[in-house]
């Protein structure tokens, strides 16, 4: 009997990792990606220990760490650079959680993930955009643009914040889904040669001003990724279009004006950035666990729990999802005694045995983080003297008690993720 075909929609973060896991567990995954050719994408990601542990299972943790410099320090300051708090806890992540945290360019991650799939012989189909799904008792057919369709045993929707898989699942449950929700915040981001004063220590740095927040972290031995968050009432398209070279000069001037009086190192970064991207930040209201799946389809990553980026956990949680979903599926070894028995799991009770427990486990944790990210974003850009004073004293207090800080990271990063 041929192995069950797993239709994986989306080749972002979760899709390729699931493709790897399912191939190694004896299934036949096919990864469909709407973009004609994956390549240049967004700015950067902070991969935390939890995400890196999962990436280690697909053999990518070491190569990603080699691209950058593991995080050593957290450093928060006022807009002028007056230190509010500092901690070298990230230095201990490697020992405490078996992997450090590391900032990487998003394009690097995406391409390494895609190539990892090609190396192990997984069928990756770029330029295939999911448009509909039809479910049967023990199979599912995915329909793509151009009238193409493929039938498999089950489908995993990893198609991100604007997931077609999610809209279709909800539509079939009688729920009309709107567009992602604009959080009221925009980010302007870039990658620059690391300014001299930031070269000593690999730190995640936050600067807090009135209505503006700036974050930076290294994404390589010589480069730093930065992002400026502001509240803007007019909704911004989540287009991810980098400014054209002729627009960059004007952007730099506007940002320099906006950041007058701020720590000069920020303006240095902005002015040396070769690429600047501006985008709106979106999330969505949480789904109930039973809405994460149907009988033959399940949502993973941003398709299930799209988040704004302020806790840096979206991709890391997508990776946790990948681990938990594939971990609960049986290994299939053709010719082995229990092969047929194990295939039964793929039958009509797949949703009861696998999808329902998966969603039940993952929904509470991810929903909490989505809500936490939203309020973290709001807190970062408060305006007015009193609101800023309260925020800054909260930050100072959070750094004072290192046991609380370390318990927070334990909760986030300690899960083992050791074997498939
Ligand atoms: C500015 C910003 C900064 C962030 N920083 C961090 C960070 O530091 N750390 C962190 O953990 N997370 C971060 N995140 C969140 C992170 O980017 C997402 O949570 C993560 O990418 C989700 O992975 P995914 O695989 O679910 O979806 P995605 O990575 O979005 O991948 C979805 C894929 O599906 C494809 N697709 C879409 N529709 C279809 C379709 N109909 N058919 C076929 N393919 C389709 C897309 O082209 C894409 O390739 C950040 C997000 C933003 C916006």
TrEMBL record:
Belongs to the paxM FAD-dependent monooxygenase family. This is FAD-binding domain-containing protein. It holds the Pfam family FAD_binding_3. Keywords: FAD, Flavoprotein, Monooxygenase, Oxidoreductase. One of its GO terms (molecular function) is monooxygenase activity. The keyword Iron does not apply. SUPFAM superfamilies: FAD/NAD(P)-binding domain. It comes from Clonostachys chloroleuca. PANTHER family: MONOOXYGENASE (PTHR13789), PUTATIVE (AFU_ORTHOLOGUE AFUA_6G14510)-RELATED (PTHR13789:SF309). Residues 6-327 form the FAD-binding domain.
